[in-house]
Amino acid sequence: MPSDSTGNDTITKLCVIGLGYVGLPTAAVFASRGLDVLGVDVNAETVATINAGKVHIVEPDLDILVNGAVATGKLRASEVPAPADAFIIAVPTPFTEDRKPDLKYLDAAADSLAPVLKSGDMVIIESTSPVGTTENFSARLAANRPDLSFPHDAGDTSDIRVAHSPERVLPGQVLIELTRNDRVVGGITSHCAERAAALYKLAVEGQCLLTTARTAELVKLAENAYRDVSIAFANELANVSDTLDINPWEAIRLANHHPRVNILNPGPGVGGHCIAVDPWFIVDSAPDDTNLIRAARGVNDGRPARIAAAVSAASRGIDSPRIACLGLSYKADIDDLRESASIAVVETLANDGFDVWVVEPHVTALPKTLNAFSNVRLATLNEAMDTCQVVTLLTDHREFREMDHARLSNKRVIDSRGAWNGEAR
Ligand code: SAJ
User: Fold this and answer.
1) CA distance 304 to 322
2) 52 plus 175 within the same structural domain
3) Is residue 224 lining ligand 1, measured as CB closer than 6 Å?
4) Which of 363, 364, 393, 398 is the most buried (most CB within 10 A)?
């Protein structure tokens, strides 16, 4: 690897492993800064799509960036890693059915990149990870490559540097947040952190905040658990308000006039691949110290059943009720259905035997779990509003927020998001 005037290694070749919601934008941003970037994904279709200058995920402006990077030859994709100066790992870290971290994709990434490592290289994990993962990753690489030294046992003089720098980007604003957000960079040693920060400084306008790998791992988990607990508080207030027959959105709006109070918005539950998952990584690492985090998960996971029960109650007395469920994605104005609480509500209603008309403008077919029900169909907003006596707002897409409220006048309405001014609950 070449060195700069200070004797530090310069990075010209980058390999990004995992080309999903985080990896592909990251690869494209570094390519746009002039690095030679190889994106690696196990999915051959994804690789072919990117090499054709196209994208397989919906994210504002990503298509233009990827297209430009591929056209200039700065970005290309492959199913296998190749030698580079630095490696960024952005593979999924889901949880198992019993809510334990499932690190099989990280293990596979370590095994696939180990053969191409050479002295002076840097490896950075961006995937959200339980505390200790980066050190274990370093040990796994070492087991694959006994000819090289690694920082978990060789310290600052190691041949390879290993760091953790969690992604913190918000879907829908990934390219902006990728460059503008501050970046936490945790090294197994301080030298590892400094070298990883030098890479990010090529693309990041925000600050690079240096720490240890273990702290960086906890920071990311803490951010998402904090948001989960905050949303759980709002959802618990909605449950309380329901019992006491109070409009929760009005109560929260009024409470938020206090200068030190900022309660979030209740909803049908917490979806997405991060906030509904990451808190369990903390619980798994410290089960006796995490009562609050666990309780928050319970409150949020209980919301879909609560909303479904409210829909059931609103349908009472109607002969063969038809239920419109507006929105399936986990939050507004995106197409991502992962862990969506809206889907959980529809599933419960379908299991209860209701005739459910789902409206989701961002998809062309129902997900498999809902397709299995003969009493659930995908409909247009007009079809659902013309047909159904009960209307449930589950995901507050713009189309629904801006809908003419007069269309709701003869309906029984459950607004799980408070998007229609909480005028009906
Ligand atoms: N939600 C509510 N009420 C609210 C806010 C959100 O019910 O007041 C719900 C949403 O509808 C959704 C869920 O919570 O179902 C999560 O949405 P979100 O917008 O809070 O977060 P994500 O999952 O899209 O992205 C989060 C972000 N983390 C934080 O804000 C701390 C993002 O910065 C992370 O990069 C991302 O997780 C990740 O990849 O970990």
Assistant:
1) 19
2) yes
3) yes
4) 393
Instruction: Note whether 52 and 187 are same-domain residues.
Output: yes
**Of 222, 256, 281, which residue is a domain's last?**
222
CA distance 245 to 333: 30
- Per-residue pLDDT tens over the stretch 346-377: 999 999 999 999 999 999 999 999 999 999 99
Q: Are residues 397 and 280 in the same domain?
A: yes
Considering its fold, how many domains does the chain have in total?
2
Ligand 1: which of 128, 227, 333, 343 to mutate, judged by most atoms within 8 Å of the beta carbon? 227
The CATH number of whichever domain residue 174 belongs to comes to: 3.40.50.720
Q: Whose CA is nearest to atom 11 of ligand 1?
A: 331
How many Å is the maximal CA-CA distance in the chain?
80
Tell me if residue 220 is catalytic: yes
Residue 273: the pLDDT is 87
Structure tokens at 403: 């809908």
User: Which structural domain range is residue 109 located in?
Assistant: 13-222
Q: Residue 272 C-alpha to ligand 1 middle, in angstroms?
A: 7
Beta bridge partners of 414: 392
Query: Across all residues in the chain, what is the average pLDDT?
Result: 95
Query: Half-sphere exposure of residue 241, counting CA atoms within 13 Å on the CB side?
Result: 18
Q: Write the DSSP assignment of 176-245 as a string of letters.
A: HHHHHS-EEEEESSHHHHHHHHHHHTTT--S-EEEEEHHHHHHHHHHHHHHHHHHHHHHHHHHHHHHHHT
pLDDT category of residue 3 using cuts at 50, 70 and 90? low
Catalytic choice (220, 325, 331, 388): 220
**Single-letter amino acid, residue 304:** P
Q: Is the pLDDT of residue 7 over 50?
A: no
Domain assignment of residue 109, yes or no: yes
pLDDT of residue 425: 39
Residue 272 in this model has a pLDDT that exceeds 80 = yes
> Domain check: are 187 and 127 in the same one?
yes
Catalytic, 325? Answer no
Q: Do 253 and 319 reside in the same domain of the chain?
A: yes
Q: Rounded to two decimals, what is the model's pTM?
A: 0.93
Cα separations in angstroms, 363 against 52, 129, 359: 24, 30, 9
Q: Which among 208, 274, 325, 388 is annotated as catalytic?
A: 274
**Is the domain of 189 the same as that of 295?**
no
Q: What is the mean pLDDT of residues 237-258?
A: 97
pLDDT of residue 172: 83
